[in-house]
Amino acid sequence: MKKTTKITIALLLIALMLLTACGQTDDNTADTTKPDSTQSEQADNTSETDNNNDDAQNNDDNAASGDNLIAETVLFDQNGVKVSATAIEDDPMLGTTLQLMIENSTDQELELLYPYVAVNGYMVRQDLMFITAPSNDNEDGEIFILPETLKNAGVTEIGDIEMMFEVRDSEGMETIFKTDKIMLKTKLYDSVEHKKLDDGVEIYNQDGFRIVAKYAEKMLSVNQIVFFMENNSGHEIVLFSDNLTVNGVNAQAMYTGSIPDGKMMIDGIMIFENHLTTADISEIKDGSIEFEMRDDVNSDDVTKTGELSFSF
């Protein structure tokens, strides 16, 4: 990756940390889980993609050594594009990075997007990031994992990283293919538990989907209400909030987030200070919110929670 690109991404990530950091979380956990070790095959069942998930989970011929948490592992090899994970590194400025090697043997310049990344069962939102892969060339790339995201999810050691990729033409921005979910296990996998940091007020628990209001906090000129969400519904869920009130006043804030099946997420809804100051609110004590949940595959499948109340 070019030096100027890396600096630009660093500045973007620092800005994201300031806006989305969820503060301290309690290390005491109510439950721990481990993911299902059975992985789905790639959607395009060609000879190129056979055994991709097996390669990502086990690489006995190239065992991880030294301080590296992973062996060099092929994540997928499809339609002339091969992506391998080479290392997990700690960057003093950017946080944790998953190092990639992208081999593009096509005649097109491509963009590799990674809209879905989860660590130890917790979602890491990376929706805006992508890596450019020149035609008929190899390119190093990195997936950045914000340190605050790991901290808030109680992640001190990485046992697994689950992700999916979208490959598109960089000129026409047309999607060429998407991978299925791919799990990369580190050498710590068997000893790392998935912690459920679900302390707080459970405001919704239905059909395998849970929402817990954890706490409210203030950061500079922004307040936020932090929620724990867990999706075991069997569906990929896109979540929309509406009608958020705090201390009986409309907070003029909304939230949108995606949570794949089998994953957890800790995320906050941001409220700008001037909205609270106008209403003479110095501390968020209670509130209410509504959510609409849509199936990411079948957008006609909609669930509305109705009004959900919480207090701190």
Descriptive account of the structure:
The chain is mainly beta. It has helices spanning 3-20, 52-57, 147-152, 273-278, and strands at residues 31-33, 73-78, 81-91, 95-104, 110-119, 122-124, 130-133, 137-145, 160-169, 175-178, 182-185, 194-196, 201-206, 209-219, 222-231, 237-246, 249-250, 256-259, 263-272, 286-295, 302-304, 308-311. The chain folds into two domains: 3-195, Immunoglobulin-like (Sandwich), CATH 2.60.40.2550; 198-311, Sandwich (Immunoglobulin-like). Mean pLDDT is 83; it is low at 1-12, 18-30, 36-51 and 57-63.
Can you summarize this structure?
The protein has 4 helices and 22 strands. It is mainly β.
Overall pLDDT level = 83
Number of helices: 4
CATH class identity of the largest domain: Mainly Beta
CATH architecture of the largest domain: Sandwich
Total strands:
22
Spans of 5+ residues with little confidence (pLDDT < 50)?
Answer: 1-12, 18-30, 36-51, 57-63
Structural class: mainly beta
Within the CATH hierarchy, at the fold level, what is the topology of the largest domain?
Immunoglobulin-like
Q: Strand-residue fraction?
A: over 45%
Number of domains: 2
- Series of secondary-structure elements, N-terminal to C-terminal: HEHEEEEEEEHEEEEEEEEEEEHEEE
- Shape, per Cα inertia axes: globular
Percent helix: 10-25%
The N- to C-terminal Cα distance equals 45 Å
